[in-house]
Specification:
337 residues, alpha/beta, Aminopeptidase, 2 domains
Protein backbone atom coordinates (compact mmCIF):
# COMPACT_ATOMS: atom_id res chain seq x y z
CA UNK A 1 0.00 0.00 0.00
CA UNK A 2 1.18 3.52 -0.85
CA UNK A 3 1.31 6.17 1.86
CA UNK A 4 0.60 9.66 0.51
CA UNK A 5 1.39 12.62 2.77
CA UNK A 6 1.17 16.42 2.54
CA UNK A 7 3.66 17.07 5.35
CA UNK A 8 6.94 15.58 6.49
CA UNK A 9 6.44 12.77 9.01
CA UNK A 10 8.05 13.42 12.36
CA UNK A 11 11.57 12.01 12.56
CA UNK A 12 12.17 11.74 8.80
CA UNK A 13 14.95 14.33 8.77
CA UNK A 14 16.86 12.43 11.46
CA UNK A 15 16.23 8.85 10.29
CA UNK A 16 18.68 6.52 8.60
CA UNK A 17 17.63 4.66 5.46
CA UNK A 18 17.42 1.42 7.47
CA UNK A 19 14.91 3.07 9.84
CA UNK A 20 12.39 4.06 7.16
CA UNK A 21 10.32 0.87 7.11
CA UNK A 22 9.56 1.28 10.82
CA UNK A 23 8.95 5.02 10.41
CA UNK A 24 6.85 4.99 7.22
CA UNK A 25 5.49 1.45 7.05
CA UNK A 26 5.96 1.18 3.29
CA UNK A 27 6.53 3.14 0.07
CA UNK A 28 5.61 6.78 0.63
CA UNK A 29 4.86 9.77 -1.62
CA UNK A 30 5.31 13.12 0.15
CA UNK A 31 4.11 16.44 -1.33
CA UNK A 32 5.64 19.66 -0.02
CA UNK A 33 4.57 23.17 -1.12
CA UNK A 34 6.90 25.72 -2.67
CA UNK A 35 6.92 29.14 -4.32
CA UNK A 36 6.27 27.71 -7.77
CA UNK A 37 3.36 25.30 -7.76
CA UNK A 38 4.42 22.83 -10.47
CA UNK A 39 6.42 20.29 -8.47
CA UNK A 40 9.79 18.74 -9.00
CA UNK A 41 9.38 14.97 -8.58
CA UNK A 42 12.28 13.10 -6.96
CA UNK A 43 12.42 9.33 -6.51
CA UNK A 44 14.80 7.78 -3.97
CA UNK A 45 15.48 4.23 -2.74
CA UNK A 46 14.05 2.48 -5.78
CA UNK A 47 16.81 0.09 -4.80
CA UNK A 48 17.18 -0.34 -1.06
CA UNK A 49 20.97 -0.33 -1.07
CA UNK A 50 21.19 2.95 -3.01
CA UNK A 51 20.62 5.51 -0.28
CA UNK A 52 22.40 8.58 -1.64
CA UNK A 53 19.15 10.05 -2.94
CA UNK A 54 17.43 9.78 0.43
CA UNK A 55 20.29 11.43 2.29
CA UNK A 56 20.51 14.16 -0.36
CA UNK A 57 16.80 14.98 0.02
CA UNK A 58 17.14 14.81 3.79
CA UNK A 59 20.04 17.31 3.74
CA UNK A 60 18.12 19.61 1.39
CA UNK A 61 15.00 19.62 3.56
CA UNK A 62 17.03 20.30 6.69
CA UNK A 63 18.40 23.37 4.92
CA UNK A 64 14.85 24.53 4.07
CA UNK A 65 13.35 23.54 7.41
CA UNK A 66 12.52 27.17 8.28
CA UNK A 67 12.16 28.62 4.79
CA UNK A 68 9.99 28.20 1.72
CA UNK A 69 11.09 25.81 -1.02
CA UNK A 70 11.76 27.55 -4.36
CA UNK A 71 9.35 25.10 -6.02
CA UNK A 72 6.92 22.47 -4.77
CA UNK A 73 8.61 19.12 -4.21
CA UNK A 74 7.16 15.62 -4.37
CA UNK A 75 9.39 12.82 -3.06
CA UNK A 76 8.70 9.12 -3.61
CA UNK A 77 10.56 6.95 -1.09
CA UNK A 78 10.52 3.47 -2.60
CA UNK A 79 11.72 0.12 -1.31
CA UNK A 80 12.01 0.76 2.42
CA UNK A 81 11.79 -2.98 3.18
CA UNK A 82 14.98 -3.65 1.21
CA UNK A 83 16.59 -0.51 2.64
CA UNK A 84 16.15 -1.98 6.12
CA UNK A 85 18.52 -4.79 5.11
CA UNK A 86 20.79 -2.74 2.82
CA UNK A 87 19.77 -4.78 -0.24
CA UNK A 88 18.79 -3.82 -3.78
CA UNK A 89 15.58 -5.82 -3.32
CA UNK A 90 14.45 -8.73 -1.21
CA UNK A 91 14.40 -12.13 -2.91
CA UNK A 92 10.58 -12.25 -2.98
CA UNK A 93 10.19 -8.68 -4.28
CA UNK A 94 9.90 -7.15 -7.73
CA UNK A 95 12.59 -4.66 -8.71
CA UNK A 96 11.15 -1.22 -7.89
CA UNK A 97 12.89 0.24 -10.93
CA UNK A 98 11.38 -2.27 -13.35
CA UNK A 99 7.67 -1.87 -12.43
CA UNK A 100 6.88 1.61 -13.76
CA UNK A 101 4.43 2.02 -16.69
CA UNK A 102 5.82 0.24 -19.74
CA UNK A 103 7.04 -2.65 -17.58
CA UNK A 104 7.33 -6.21 -18.83
CA UNK A 105 6.20 -7.42 -15.39
CA UNK A 106 2.79 -9.02 -15.06
CA UNK A 107 0.09 -7.16 -13.17
CA UNK A 108 0.88 -7.01 -9.46
CA UNK A 109 0.05 -4.77 -6.48
CA UNK A 110 3.41 -2.99 -6.81
CA UNK A 111 2.78 -2.27 -10.50
CA UNK A 112 -0.64 -0.79 -9.71
CA UNK A 113 0.85 1.26 -6.88
CA UNK A 114 3.46 2.79 -9.17
CA UNK A 115 0.84 3.56 -11.80
CA UNK A 116 -0.96 5.52 -9.11
CA UNK A 117 2.19 7.51 -8.36
CA UNK A 118 2.57 8.47 -12.04
CA UNK A 119 -1.12 9.40 -12.31
CA UNK A 120 -0.82 11.62 -9.24
CA UNK A 121 2.22 13.45 -10.58
CA UNK A 122 0.53 13.97 -13.94
CA UNK A 123 -2.48 15.50 -12.19
CA UNK A 124 -0.17 17.82 -10.25
CA UNK A 125 1.38 19.02 -13.54
CA UNK A 126 4.87 17.96 -12.58
CA UNK A 127 7.68 20.25 -13.79
CA UNK A 128 10.46 17.66 -14.09
CA UNK A 129 11.42 14.26 -12.69
CA UNK A 130 14.68 13.10 -11.10
CA UNK A 131 15.38 9.48 -10.14
CA UNK A 132 18.46 9.17 -7.90
CA UNK A 133 20.61 6.03 -8.01
CA UNK A 134 24.02 4.67 -7.05
CA UNK A 135 26.39 2.29 -8.81
CA UNK A 136 27.82 -0.81 -7.17
CA UNK A 137 30.92 -0.66 -9.41
CA UNK A 138 33.50 2.02 -10.12
CA UNK A 139 31.85 4.76 -12.20
CA UNK A 140 31.87 8.53 -12.64
CA UNK A 141 28.78 10.55 -11.82
CA UNK A 142 26.54 10.66 -14.89
CA UNK A 143 22.97 11.23 -16.01
CA UNK A 144 20.64 9.04 -18.08
CA UNK A 145 17.79 10.02 -20.39
CA UNK A 146 15.28 8.05 -22.44
CA UNK A 147 14.45 10.69 -25.03
CA UNK A 148 16.83 12.74 -27.16
CA UNK A 149 15.18 16.08 -26.50
CA UNK A 150 16.71 19.46 -25.73
CA UNK A 151 14.90 19.88 -22.40
CA UNK A 152 15.98 16.40 -21.30
CA UNK A 153 19.57 17.11 -22.32
CA UNK A 154 19.60 20.40 -20.41
CA UNK A 155 18.22 18.66 -17.32
CA UNK A 156 20.87 15.92 -17.60
CA UNK A 157 23.83 18.19 -18.35
CA UNK A 158 23.00 20.26 -15.26
CA UNK A 159 24.20 17.19 -13.30
CA UNK A 160 27.05 15.95 -15.51
CA UNK A 161 28.51 16.41 -18.97
CA UNK A 162 28.44 12.59 -19.24
CA UNK A 163 24.96 11.58 -20.42
CA UNK A 164 23.70 8.11 -21.35
CA UNK A 165 20.68 7.55 -23.61
CA UNK A 166 18.90 4.21 -23.28
CA UNK A 167 15.54 2.56 -24.01
CA UNK A 168 16.22 -0.76 -22.24
CA UNK A 169 15.53 -2.02 -19.63
CA UNK A 170 11.80 -1.33 -19.66
CA UNK A 171 9.75 -0.31 -16.64
CA UNK A 172 12.24 2.21 -15.27
CA UNK A 173 11.13 5.42 -13.57
CA UNK A 174 12.73 7.88 -15.97
CA UNK A 175 11.23 6.23 -19.05
CA UNK A 176 7.74 6.23 -17.55
CA UNK A 177 8.03 9.85 -16.47
CA UNK A 178 9.44 10.89 -19.87
CA UNK A 179 5.87 10.62 -21.18
CA UNK A 180 4.76 13.15 -18.56
CA UNK A 181 7.59 15.69 -18.23
CA UNK A 182 11.34 16.07 -18.79
CA UNK A 183 12.91 13.21 -16.83
CA UNK A 184 16.39 12.09 -15.87
CA UNK A 185 18.15 9.44 -13.83
CA UNK A 186 21.26 10.56 -11.98
CA UNK A 187 23.95 8.03 -11.04
CA UNK A 188 25.89 9.22 -8.00
CA UNK A 189 28.73 6.72 -7.61
CA UNK A 190 28.90 4.30 -4.70
CA UNK A 191 26.56 4.83 -1.73
CA UNK A 192 29.52 5.15 0.62
CA UNK A 193 30.89 8.22 -1.17
CA UNK A 194 30.01 11.43 0.71
CA UNK A 195 30.45 13.51 -2.43
CA UNK A 196 27.52 11.67 -4.04
CA UNK A 197 25.13 13.02 -1.39
CA UNK A 198 26.51 16.55 -1.77
CA UNK A 199 26.33 16.44 -5.57
CA UNK A 200 22.77 15.07 -5.60
CA UNK A 201 21.63 17.58 -2.98
CA UNK A 202 23.08 20.52 -4.93
CA UNK A 203 21.58 19.22 -8.17
CA UNK A 204 18.08 18.82 -6.71
CA UNK A 205 18.27 22.34 -5.27
CA UNK A 206 19.38 23.69 -8.66
CA UNK A 207 16.38 21.97 -10.30
CA UNK A 208 14.05 23.51 -7.69
CA UNK A 209 15.38 26.96 -8.59
CA UNK A 210 14.85 26.60 -12.34
CA UNK A 211 12.15 28.82 -13.86
CA UNK A 212 11.99 26.64 -16.97
CA UNK A 213 14.00 24.17 -19.01
CA UNK A 214 15.46 25.57 -22.21
CA UNK A 215 14.30 24.18 -25.54
CA UNK A 216 17.47 25.41 -27.23
CA UNK A 217 20.01 22.78 -28.34
CA UNK A 218 22.78 21.87 -25.92
CA UNK A 219 26.13 22.67 -27.57
CA UNK A 220 27.81 19.40 -28.56
CA UNK A 221 31.03 20.42 -26.78
CA UNK A 222 29.10 20.67 -23.48
CA UNK A 223 28.02 17.04 -23.33
CA UNK A 224 29.52 13.59 -23.86
CA UNK A 225 26.54 11.55 -25.06
CA UNK A 226 26.54 7.75 -25.07
CA UNK A 227 23.97 5.28 -26.33
CA UNK A 228 23.35 2.01 -24.46
CA UNK A 229 23.28 -0.60 -27.22
CA UNK A 230 23.20 -3.88 -25.28
CA UNK A 231 22.59 -5.49 -21.89
CA UNK A 232 24.88 -8.27 -20.66
CA UNK A 233 23.44 -11.00 -18.42
CA UNK A 234 24.79 -14.31 -17.19
CA UNK A 235 22.26 -17.14 -17.64
CA UNK A 236 20.95 -18.76 -14.46
CA UNK A 237 22.46 -22.13 -15.37
CA UNK A 238 25.99 -20.69 -15.72
CA UNK A 239 28.05 -20.53 -12.53
CA UNK A 240 30.41 -17.57 -12.30
CA UNK A 241 32.74 -15.79 -9.94
CA UNK A 242 35.85 -13.64 -9.71
CA UNK A 243 38.24 -15.99 -7.93
CA UNK A 244 36.57 -19.41 -8.25
CA UNK A 245 38.58 -21.50 -10.70
CA UNK A 246 35.83 -24.16 -10.71
CA UNK A 247 33.11 -21.78 -11.98
CA UNK A 248 31.87 -22.08 -15.57
CA UNK A 249 32.88 -18.45 -16.09
CA UNK A 250 35.58 -16.68 -14.09
CA UNK A 251 35.53 -12.92 -14.67
CA UNK A 252 38.53 -10.62 -14.29
CA UNK A 253 38.64 -9.35 -10.72
CA UNK A 254 38.68 -5.64 -11.59
CA UNK A 255 35.95 -5.68 -14.23
CA UNK A 256 34.23 -2.66 -12.64
CA UNK A 257 37.33 -0.55 -13.37
CA UNK A 258 36.46 -0.90 -17.07
CA UNK A 259 33.32 1.21 -16.70
CA UNK A 260 33.32 4.31 -18.92
CA UNK A 261 36.58 3.27 -20.57
CA UNK A 262 36.55 2.67 -24.31
CA UNK A 263 37.72 -0.92 -24.60
CA UNK A 264 39.48 -1.99 -27.80
CA UNK A 265 38.68 -5.24 -29.56
CA UNK A 266 40.56 -8.12 -27.96
CA UNK A 267 40.13 -6.94 -24.36
CA UNK A 268 40.09 -9.91 -21.97
CA UNK A 269 37.07 -10.14 -19.64
CA UNK A 270 37.36 -13.65 -18.22
CA UNK A 271 38.00 -17.36 -18.68
CA UNK A 272 35.78 -20.36 -19.38
CA UNK A 273 36.17 -23.66 -17.61
CA UNK A 274 35.47 -25.75 -20.70
CA UNK A 275 34.04 -25.52 -24.19
CA UNK A 276 33.67 -22.67 -26.62
CA UNK A 277 30.17 -21.46 -25.69
CA UNK A 278 29.99 -17.76 -24.82
CA UNK A 279 27.83 -18.47 -21.74
CA UNK A 280 26.50 -14.90 -21.87
CA UNK A 281 23.07 -13.53 -22.72
CA UNK A 282 23.61 -10.24 -24.56
CA UNK A 283 20.56 -8.41 -25.92
CA UNK A 284 20.32 -5.22 -27.97
CA UNK A 285 17.78 -2.50 -27.20
CA UNK A 286 15.13 -4.41 -29.15
CA UNK A 287 15.69 -7.58 -27.13
CA UNK A 288 17.54 -9.48 -29.87
CA UNK A 289 20.50 -11.74 -28.97
CA UNK A 290 23.77 -10.11 -30.10
CA UNK A 291 26.47 -11.82 -28.04
CA UNK A 292 28.53 -12.77 -31.11
CA UNK A 293 28.59 -9.12 -32.18
CA UNK A 294 30.52 -8.10 -29.06
CA UNK A 295 32.23 -11.20 -27.59
CA UNK A 296 34.15 -14.28 -28.64
CA UNK A 297 36.06 -17.17 -27.08
CA UNK A 298 39.74 -17.57 -27.88
CA UNK A 299 41.56 -20.46 -26.22
CA UNK A 300 39.04 -20.53 -23.34
CA UNK A 301 39.40 -16.76 -22.86
CA UNK A 302 36.41 -14.39 -23.11
CA UNK A 303 37.39 -11.39 -25.25
CA UNK A 304 35.70 -8.41 -26.90
CA UNK A 305 35.36 -8.43 -30.69
CA UNK A 306 34.73 -4.71 -31.28
CA UNK A 307 35.31 -1.43 -29.44
CA UNK A 308 32.68 -0.39 -26.88
CA UNK A 309 32.38 1.33 -23.51
CA UNK A 310 30.84 -0.63 -20.60
CA UNK A 311 28.75 0.83 -17.81
CA UNK A 312 27.52 -0.57 -14.49
CA UNK A 313 29.89 -3.55 -14.56
CA UNK A 314 29.94 -4.70 -10.95
CA UNK A 315 31.66 -7.15 -8.61
CA UNK A 316 28.46 -7.68 -6.62
CA UNK A 317 27.42 -11.23 -7.52
CA UNK A 318 23.95 -10.83 -5.97
CA UNK A 319 23.22 -7.80 -8.15
CA UNK A 320 24.54 -9.60 -11.22
CA UNK A 321 22.06 -12.41 -10.56
CA UNK A 322 19.16 -10.09 -9.73
CA UNK A 323 19.76 -7.72 -12.63
CA UNK A 324 22.72 -7.93 -15.01
CA UNK A 325 26.50 -7.82 -15.33
CA UNK A 326 26.30 -4.43 -17.05
CA UNK A 327 25.63 -2.51 -20.24
CA UNK A 328 27.53 -1.76 -23.46
CA UNK A 329 27.60 1.76 -24.89
CA UNK A 330 28.72 3.60 -28.00
CA UNK A 331 29.33 7.31 -28.49
CA UNK A 332 26.47 9.34 -29.96
CA UNK A 333 26.56 12.89 -31.25
CA UNK A 334 23.53 14.94 -30.09
CA UNK A 335 22.88 16.25 -33.59
CA UNK A 336 22.96 12.70 -35.05
CA UNK A 337 20.38 11.26 -32.65
Amino acid sequence: MLNELETLPEGLLEAGAADLEALLGGPTLIHLPGRRSEPLFVTVLSHGNEDTGFYAVQALLRHYRERELPRSLSVFIGNVAAARHGLRRLDDQLDYNRIWPGTEQADAPEVRMIQGVVDTMRERQVFASVDVHNNSGISPHYACINRIDNQFLHLASLFSRTVVYFIRPLGVQSMAMSHVCPAVTIECGKPSHKYGVEHARDYIEACLKLNELSREPVPSHDVDLFHTVATVKIPEEVSFGFSDDTADLRLVDAIDHMNFRELPAGTQLGWLQTGDSLQLDVRDENGRPVQERYFAIHENTLITTRPFMPSMFTLDERIIRQDCLGYLMERLLPESA
